Amino acid sequence: MKSGARVPAAKLVMPMAASPDGRFLHAAARAKPFAVYSYRIEPKSGALQWIGATPLPDSMVSISTDQTGQWLLGASYGGNSLSMNRIAANGRVDVEPAQFFQSGGVKPHSIKTDKANGIVYVPHLATDEIKGYRFNAKSNTPIAEQGSSTPVKKGMGPRHFVVSPDDRFLYALTELTGRVIAYQRDAATGALTEVQDISTLAENSKLLPGQPRVPVGTPGAIPFDETTAIWCADIQITPNGRFLYTSERTVGTLSQFEVDARTGKLKLLGQISTEKQPRGFAIDPQSQYLVASGEKSSTISLYAIDGSNGTLSLVEQVPVGKGANWVTIVRTEQ
């Protein structure tokens, strides 16, 4: 792994989303003026070619494209809102959102469709729920603004999630308690039925449940010791569906799980230390490698995934500069 050319972006760029065909990359700026920066991905080298910047209606903590690549979905943690912008065939995002509305919950933290592209899921950290919305990519207003809600135990703080490659299960990571909740999905309705609630932490972990982190001086904020608080971030599943991984930022670890393809249940394999404050990581399309970044690191780590047992082995660390927080992997031409 080696560093490529750098391209211009905003001061605070966080969530990224690649188109399903790997032709375009979109990155959201979370500092004003809020915008999404779009790039064309050169198919052989992976180099990024600037397309343009499109204003966004709020600071988006999460963006994704739907399964057709025609829609950019956004979730605003601070604004409690969701947005839908159409994406043109040349990769440019429409200036005016097709939809922008209040989500009905507090602190939505991620947004993605299922594999069938019929349901959009949005975990809400502060109201401890996962909302599901009907989605129709052919409509000019693709998402139903009234969604169903699956409650999560109070104080868990659901954050990021993944849907299994076969679309049968959804796995949600709780930021404040360090657990993965496994759900079986109803393919027709998108309804979620819990099948497992499992910790990502080591048995001897000294970490304690955390609180939503807010700016210093925020009225009503509950003081707590951030050096001992659970602060989970990202969750990813291998494209072959065999293994699942999560990150925890306070102690800087990746947790490794084996997936039972029949039941959807997980088996914790252990944890390894990784980059400092690992917010985001990604897995390659062949399920062979994992790349992890750290918000307080100046490198990213490349791990080999053992195909027989899912364990991670460090291959190398590559300098990337300060503040790396999101990783997206696309397949290029050989």
> What's the mean pLDDT score?
95
Strands of the largest sheet, in order across it?
1-2-3-4
Note the main sheet. 4 strands, antiparallel
Q: What is the domain tally?
A: 2
> Separation of termini?
15 Å
Give the oligomeric state of the chains in this entry, treating copies of one chain as homo and distinct chains as hetero. Answer: single chain
| Beta content | 35-45%
Radius of gyration: 19 Å
CATH class term of the largest domain: Mainly Beta
Task: State the share of residues found in helices, binned by percent.
Answer: under 10%
Can you tell me the CATH architecture of the largest domain? 7 Propeller
How many strands appear in the DSSP assignment? 24
Task: Give a quick set of tags describing it.
4-stranded antiparallel β-sheet; 0% helix; Methylamine Dehydrogenase, Chain H; mainly beta; 334 residues; 2 domains; 42% strand
